[in-house]
Fold this protein.
Amino acid sequence: QVQLVESGGGLVQAGGSLRLSCAASGRGFSINTMGWYRQAPGKQRELVAVVMRGVTNYADSVKGRFIISRDNAKNTVYLQMNSLKPEDTAVYYCNAGVRVGYRDLEVWGQGTLITVSS
């Protein structure tokens, strides 16, 4: 079983920065993709950023402000969030596409709350 553990959420003022981390653990797995999604109150979960084989992709709303990076040796993905805005307030979820044996699975973290005050 593969688990994702997130850290780094919290309260920040508009214009500030936060860094999220997400570490994958388990046995006998390999990671294809890692990324971050978010869900604001009353809204659907949306993609924030994803990295696959070194290629990154961002939601338009965070381009130029957020940076996703991955440490393959640690099975960890990071999200550096700069110039935060109140509309970035949401629960942020780590996501990973993993292969376990011959199966491709999608794994989610428990979510971490980011609150940006104006």
